[in-house]
Amino acid sequence: MMTYCSESLTFTVPISLSDRTLAEQFRFQHNSPEKAKQVYLNTLAVSAVKFYLCCMGVETNWSASLSWNSAIQTVMNVADLEVIGQGKIECLPVLPGEKVIHIPPEVCSDRIGYVAVQLNESLREATLLGFIKMVTECNSVPLSELRSLEELIVQLSEAPEQEKQPIHLSKWLMNVVDVGWQRVEAAELAFGFRSAEQTLAENLADNLTISVQQGILLDLGRQPESKPIALRVGLIPTSEQEINIFVKVCPTDNQKYLPEELKIMVLDDLGTAVMQATARSTKSIQLNFSSELGEHFSIKVALGNVNFIKFFTV
To answer: Which of 2, 11, 232, 280 could staple 248 via S-S, CB 3.0–4.6 A?
Structure first.
């Protein structure tokens, strides 16, 4: 059960079995008992912050964070979580009875915030106590100096103006690529797309060719074995005013199927789903539609409590 306490502006969540399993898997990769304990607590803290940000509608990518890398865990005390398009948040575990948070030297820079996560004695529950926006030196910070979680969400919602703007698909036709997106033809290896897929022309209709196809990775998993999925968007102009569009989700890293119950939706400018599909032992999902210049739509990809929404204008 999730509890949000408006008076103290804290956020308490149970630490799920999957969270503890993930922490155990990371811990067993380290021989030093001290390092294993550190990694275990850090993983629980990151899990709690990731869940909170997901509930607040903030997109994260744990697999792109240093704390997901076992080799980095060995040489650094790190519990970072990548906030897509903004930077890294450090998730600092606080044990019962502690009155301060300890900021390791290796995480004193390149962070957009530090969140204090208090773990209870049984390690079955975590409470986000607040955050610090930045630090000037690595030391211990009293819990009494934490700022409210409400301020953190306000800070994260104040994304750079370019992050708030929809992606202009017509610019893709002029080779203007948005941050985070890559041409699929140039990124096949980086994305780990499964080989021998049919071309878009085969998927859509005979004698059609793709003018441009861009892709981006989406992190929808919480387990070490979970792999990001790839979202592709392709364009085929049919006239000066109309473009055929396809959106497709594919597994990565030689995974055979998409995650069960993965959903993809095309939403109109009012946020209403006009097309949708759900994965059930599905290798990939593709939705095709046409749009005129100036029209707006968005793509939503969801799995359980995690979802991503990308906004577009034609």
So the answer is: 232
CB 185 within 8 A of CB 198: no
CA distance 51 to 87: 17
Cβ–Cβ under 8 Å, residues 182 and 214: yes
SS3 at position 210 = coil
Tens of pLDDT along the chain (314 residues) come to 444 343 457 889 888 898 999 999 999 999 999 999 999 999 999 999 999 998 888 888 888 788 998 888 998 999 999 888 777 899 999 999 899 988 888 887 778 889 999 999 888 999 999 998 877 666 788 998 899 898 888 888 765 444 446 788 888 888 776 666 777 653 343 333 333 233 333 333 333 455 788 888 887 654 445 677 888 998 888 887 888 998 999 888 777 888 888 899 998 877 788 899 999 888 889 999 998 888 889 898 888 767 778 888 88
- DSSP result, 2-66: -EEETTTTEEEEE--HHHHHHHHHHHTT--SHHHHHHHHHHHHHHHHHHHHHHHTT--EEGGGSG
Whole-angstrom distance, CA of residue 143 vs CA of residue 129: 8
Asked whether the beta carbons of 217 and 235 are under 8 A apart, the reply is: no
DSSP string covering 255-282, please? -SSPPTT-EEEEE-TTS-EEEEEE-SS-
pTM of the full predicted structure? 0.54
